[in-house]
């Protein structure tokens, strides 16, 4: 049984109030709250065992190193990856995608080569490819979703030409909640010798992910959306692609030998992890992933589907509200506008006075806003600790918005 009361009790911040109202935190798409077990694990490390990793032989360094490196196996298990040496630690999805752009794209792509993207991508999965467009003449090809926000895999594959070298696609849209059949895209790309990068920042939070089964060459996640700390994350890189990559950054740990005249590099994944890492952050992410797996990713997915369906029904009853994205089996992410003079920033401010925290703006998705024909939206995004009562609180706050702004 999914014990929502127990889960909520695990997150200390959910007990606080905003302007005398209980906090209803619906900004999980931007960053999720942290369970006490993560907070305590990070605090305990700083209080009792902290030292730099890999470089020392003393007790504290050994303890920190063991905890840090054990996280790599946790990430691999969470993602369904058999080979933990294919897991590279990053500060988040943004660094992971930039690692691919600099480490794989720059040395392997040339002028006229194509990268296929969807207009639903987060800026983190757009700007690093613009770097290659600006600096190397790489061509960006854009795929638009259907009217309901869905993105058929075949539509992405139909954009491929004999110059396509990479498909970079989100597993789930952070604005529309659209789920993308990335396994079919990866399979079709692989048959043509094309690399695939999947941004799993949203999808990995809301249900089980089997990266080995998906078959993409690169799969990125970010810890702060996974109920872990900011500054943590990872990327899965298939071994064949690792062999094609040059280091992204230079420094300690990523080297084998350094002399005045030459440098040789460490073996992957260390080859791509330069300098002192975010030791405590990565350990905290590992604890967060263990916490989620302890609850059960299928259980989390089922709970959020119930919230999604309940919220869809309630929001559909507000005939003055425009929902963006109604794709079947979407995630529990709802972007909307109220029309008229009601700007999303005004909506967010009024909801905040009712204790309801939502996002307002472009959500780092400028091309998608252009396609939708809006300058911004408000967004309510649900997580494992949200409830139907909080959906009702959102609806009540939106009614107030309509009264004030409609």
UniProtKB/TrEMBL annotation:
Residues 24-394 form the Aminotransferase class V domain. It comes from the Bacteria. Transmembrane segments: none annotated. Gene3D superfamilies: Aspartate Aminotransferase, domain 1, Type I PLP-dependent aspartate aminotransferase-like (Major domain). One of its GO terms (biological process) is cysteine metabolic process. It comes from Thioclava indica. It is an enzyme of class 2 (transferase). The keyword Transferase applies. It catalyses: (sulfur carrier)-H + L-cysteine = (sulfur carrier)-SH + L-alanine. Keywords: Pyridoxal phosphate, Transferase. GO terms for molecular function: cysteine desulfurase activity; pyridoxal phosphate binding. Its EC number is 2.8.1.7. Its cofactor is pyridoxal 5'-phosphate. InterPro entries: Aminotrans_V_dom, Cys_dSase_SufS, PyrdxlP-dep_Trfase, PyrdxlP-dep_Trfase_major, PyrdxlP-dep_Trfase_small. The keyword Transferase applies. CDD domains: SufS_like (cd06453). This is cysteine desulfurase. Belongs to the class-V pyridoxal-phosphate-dependent aminotransferase family. Csd subfamily.
């Amino acid at each position: 049984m999914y014990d929502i009361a127990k889960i909520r009790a695990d997150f200390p911040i959910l007990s606080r109030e905003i302007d005398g109202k209980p906090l209803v935190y619906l900004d999980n798409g931007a960053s999720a709250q942290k369970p006490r077990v993560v907070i305590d694990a990070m605090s305990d490390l700083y209080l009792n065992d902290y030292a730099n990793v890999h470089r020392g032989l003393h007790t504290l360094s050994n303890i920190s190193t063991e905890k840090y490196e054990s996280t790599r196996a946790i990430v691999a298990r969470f993602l369904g990856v058999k080979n933990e040496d294919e897991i590279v630690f990053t500060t988040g999805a943004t660094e992971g995608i930039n690692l691919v752009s600099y480490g794989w794209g720059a040395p392997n792509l040339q002028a006229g080569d194509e990268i296929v993207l969807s207009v639903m991508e987060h800026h983190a999965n757009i700007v690093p490819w613009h770097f290659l467009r600006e600096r190397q003449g790489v061509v960006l090809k854009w795929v638009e979703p259907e009217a309901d926000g869905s993105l058929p895999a075949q539509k992405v594959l139909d954009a491929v030409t004999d110059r396509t070298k990479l498909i970079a696609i989100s597993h789930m849209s952070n604005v529309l909640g659209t789920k993308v059949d990335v396994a079919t895209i990866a399979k079709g790309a692989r048959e043509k010798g094309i690399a695939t990068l999947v941004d799993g920042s949203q999808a990995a939070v809301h249900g089980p992910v089997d990266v080995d089964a998906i078959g993409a060459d690169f799969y990125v996640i970010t810890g702060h959306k996974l109920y872990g700390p900011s500054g943590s994350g990872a990327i899965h890189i298939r071994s064949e692609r690792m062999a094609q990559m040059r280091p992204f950054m230079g420094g300690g740990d990523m080297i084998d030998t350094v002399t005045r005249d030459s440098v040789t590099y460490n073996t992957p994944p260390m080859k791509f992890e330069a300098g002192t890492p975010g030791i405590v952050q990565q350990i905290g992410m590992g604890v967060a992933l263990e916490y989620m797996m302890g609850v059960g990713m299928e259980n989390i997915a089922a709970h959020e589907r119930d919230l999604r369906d309940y919220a869809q029904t309630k929001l559909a009853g507000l005939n003055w509200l425009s929902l963006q994205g109604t794709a079947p089996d979407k995630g529990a992410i709802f972007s909307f506008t109220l029309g008229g003079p009601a700007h999303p920033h005004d909506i967010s401010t009024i909801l905040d006075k009712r204790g309801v925290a939502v996002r307002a703006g472009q959500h780092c998705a400028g091309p998608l806003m252009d396609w939708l024909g809006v300058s911004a939206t408000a967004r309510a995004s649900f997580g494992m600790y949200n409830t139907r009562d909080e959906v009702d609180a959102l609806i009540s706050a939106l009614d107030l918005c309509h009264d004030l702004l409609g």
